[in-house]
């Protein structure tokens, strides 16, 4: 019998393989749809929103980030500081991006570190109850825990393709569920 960790690893491997198999042109079309559905996000101008730049076969939500910035969001990107920690550095137009760990790029160390109120999060697997599996390093779980210890309750919105959905994600007590998910099929709320 598989442990929860082994079950999660198997689901992660399976669903990331499906995501990787999406042809680049189809991935682009699906990413455009995700960005369009994401435009329905409600927030007040000045809200700090964390996004991400795509790595590997992730959805490319740069058009959505641009749209949210035009609507007054204060944008930031996750930066891997060490094996355990990510911080969220402010993203401003025209600022040079640097390598920031885990294959990502983002604002350099001179950028302001922000505490996001809304996180657009890449993931490996999700289910209809809002449970998610990340990439296995726990960076987002620890970052969310730090935000909550500061008295914040950030909205967590997953970004994925439909092929990453499963019937049920094996959830553990430390796992943090999503408020919503945006895929190429639409914007679904869980909260």
TrEMBL record:
This is 5-formyltetrahydrofolate cyclo-ligase. Belongs to the 5-formyltetrahydrofolate cyclo-ligase family. The lineage of its organism: Bacteria, Pseudomonadati, Pseudomonadota, Alphaproteobacteria, Hyphomicrobiales. Its EC number is 6.3.3.2. It is an enzyme of class 6 (ligase). It catalyses: (6S)-5-formyl-5,6,7,8-tetrahydrofolate + ATP = (6R)-5,10-methenyltetrahydrofolate + ADP + phosphate. GO terms for molecular function: 5-formyltetrahydrofolate cyclo-ligase activity; ATP binding; metal ion binding. It comes from Gellertiella hungarica. ATP binds at residues 8-12, 132-140. Signal peptide: none annotated. One of its GO terms (biological process) is tetrahydrofolate interconversion.
């Amino acid at each position: 019998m598989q442990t929860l960790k082994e079950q999660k690893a198997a689901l992660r491997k399976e669903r990331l393989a499906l995501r990787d198999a999406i042809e680049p042109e189809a991935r682009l079309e699906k990413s455009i749809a995700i960005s369009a559905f994401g435009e329905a996000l409600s927030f007040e101008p000045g809200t700090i929103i964390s996004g991400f730049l795509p790595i590997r076969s992730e959805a490319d939500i740069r058009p959505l980030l641009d749209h949210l910035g035009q609507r007054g969001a204060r944008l930031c990107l996750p930066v891997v500081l060490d094996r355990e920690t990510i911080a969220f550095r402010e993203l401003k137009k025209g600022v040079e991006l640097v390598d920031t760990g885990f294959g990502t790029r983002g604002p350099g160390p001179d950028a302001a570190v922000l505490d996001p109120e809304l996180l657009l999060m890449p993931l490996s697997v999700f289910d209809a109850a809002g449970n998610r599996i990340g990439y296995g390093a726990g960076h987002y779980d620890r970052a969310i825990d730090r935000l909550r210890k500061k008295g914040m309750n950030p909205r967590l919105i997953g970004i994925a393709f439909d092929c990453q959905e499963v019937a049920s994600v094996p959830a553990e007590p430390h796992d943090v569920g999503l408020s919503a998910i945006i895929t190429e099929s639409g914007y679904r709320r869980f909260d």
